[in-house]
Amino acid sequence: MTILDKILKEKEKEVAQLKENYQPGDLQADKLDISLYETFIKAEKMSIIAEMKRASPSKGLINDGVEPAEQGRLYESCGAGAISVLTDEPFFKGTMADMQAVRAEVNIPVLNKDFIIDEIQIDRAKDAGANVILLIAAALSPERLAELYAYAENKGLEILFEVHNEEEMEIAKSIGAKIIGINNRNLKTFEVDLAVTERLAKMVDTSEVLLISESGMKQKADVERVKNAGAKGILVGETMMRSVDLKETFDMLRVPLGE
Questions:
Q1: Is 56 exposed, middle or buried (0-12, 13-18, 19+ CB in 10 A)?
Q2: Of 86, 79, 133, which Cα lies nearest the Cα of 106?
């Protein structure tokens, strides 16, 4: 059983509880109508989705003392184009309250980073103030992904559609995904390889589709590599959570786009 399998098994239990305990509209977060797609596609520098995560299955505890509101403010002031907040509790030690705390503090798009398998999670994300949700191609059947994609779109949410191989990229294309996250980390083995972005970026028109390269961004050379492949955004978690000088880290990673 892979880590992803374990997470999804746990998520099924969480969704069952959510259906018993959560009524759409229960959470009333501040809303901010702002498009990640529009912001990133026009940017002149590499846009960064800065991620807030306390822990991960592969790294264990990363930064469990983080204050979400404070981290959100810091990220925005340093130049984040959007903020991703992990809300999975069993494996990543995150909560929806973390995301609400960030949403209340910042004026940039917020991504609800979770393992979404059901409409009720999308309702909750919307209620909690998310602008963007994550759908992971490896987690569900193409038919189910298409249903959830359409449901989120109808709710006025943007979707970061995450892929890791050619087959998943074909699914993203067939669904009409406008924001595609190429995860350089294999969710089954958790190994990271930037060549994944280089390989899969060739399959889409990067002037129309917003490509986000996820995982493995540690230094400027990494960002240059994925920029040259066609990515206009990067999702950076662990590097941000461990950074001792966030401004310096952001300045290093926000390389100019274009020639």
A1: buried
A2: 79
- Looking at residue 259, the DSSP 8-state letter turns out to be -
- Give the residue among 106, 111, 107, 75 at the shortest CA–CA distance from 94: 111
Taking alpha carbons only, the member of 227, 34, 250, 255 closest to residue 129 is 34
The span from the CA of 164 to the CA of 203, in Å, is 12
Q: Which two tokens stand for residue 226?
A: 């994925």
Give tens-digit pLDDT for 166-198: 999 999 999 999 999 999 988 777 789 999 999
Contact 81, 39 (CB under 8 A): yes
By the 8 A CB rule, do 223 and 30 touch? no
Q: How does DSSP assign 2-17, residue by residue?
A: -HHHHHHHHHHHHHHH
Q: Which helix (H) or strand (E) is 151 found in, with range?
A: helix 142-154
Across 73-87, average pLDDT: 96
The structure tokens 């950076």 sit at 236
Which residues fall within 8 angstroms of residue 155, CB to CB, at 6 or more apart? 122, 123, 126
Locus of tokens 């978690």: 237
CATH class of this structure's domain 3-21+32-253: alpha beta
- Domain locations along the chain: 3-21+32-253
Report CA Rg, the chain. Answer: 17
The tens digit of pLDDT for each residue in 121-162 reads 999 999 999 999 999 999 999 999 999 999 999 999 999 999
